[in-house]
Amino acid sequence: MVKQVTIISGKGGTGKTTISSAFASLAENAVIADCDVDAADMHLIMGPNILETNDFYGLKVADINPDICTYCGICRESCSFGAIGRDIRVDVFGCEGCAVCEYVCPSGAIRMVDRKAGEVFSSVTRFGPMAHAKLGIGEEASGKLVSAVRTTASELAMKYGKDLIIIDGPPGTGCSVIAAITGVDLVLIVTEPTVSGMHDLERVLEVVNHFRIPALVCVNKYNINECNTQMIRDYCRDRKVGIIGVLPYDRTPTDAMLEGKTVIEYACGGFSSNVHDMWENIRDCLFAEKCSVFRS
């Protein structure tokens, strides 16, 4: 059975892609899935060679046939999103696909049509297969696109006989995060000892707990505020959430990214060694049904 681990964070910039890419370089039989589709950047490190591209269609949008339309304006008056202009043309970026205009149109001039919102890629990297995507400019439905990427990753795992999918998830607590964690075996939450980082850790833990998914926490850049780091330790201990890694603020991730490498490829010891130890624990949690974590 294919195991799945998702790396997420309550806010952006905590280092989850750094950790996800490092895990990908350490895993021996995994598929990589970049599900941070609103701001995909894992390809900068993975250097994927795209093998297959599939169009992604998000929400349907209204299409008005000018040959049938009587320009009565009922559709414009009924649109709660202001997506139909005075000239009775649809603003596709404003349309939410509710189809009320199609329902109220007396002449049957409106229909809901598919609209390409992005692309899903099946690729190969130096670490194995990768599923990733590109969301079109101004497009929404990122949750649906995350699901499409995960479906592609599962297909790649079956095709190549992989036993693990490493998912680089999006930040926040929205629908794209829910799509990235639903049904996985383990969630790793990467946080930082800042006020916003601590607050967002609480929020994202609530989401993960709602879906009853096992969760672990990694505190990145712990030494920028060791007092807050201790508060995170206390918070996690009180809620019986394991802290699986405590990483220092270090230039290694930045320097590695500038060279298009993972931190594991770029350097040995220090930061990279800590990430390696974290991966060993993650692997044990997934496959050996044991977990050595910090609970202090």
From TrEMBL:
Residues 60-84, 86-115 form the 4Fe-4S ferredoxin-type domain. Gene3D superfamilies: P-loop containing nucleotide triphosphate hydrolases. Transmembrane segments: none annotated. InterPro entries: 4Fe4S_Fe-S-bd, 4Fe4S_Fe_S_CS, CobQ/CobB/MinD/ParA_Nub-bd_dom, P-loop_NTPase. GO terms for molecular function: oxidoreductase activity. It comes from the Archaea. This is (4Fe-4S)-binding protein. The lineage of its organism: Archaea, Methanobacteriati, Methanobacteriota, Stenosarchaea group, Methanomicrobia.
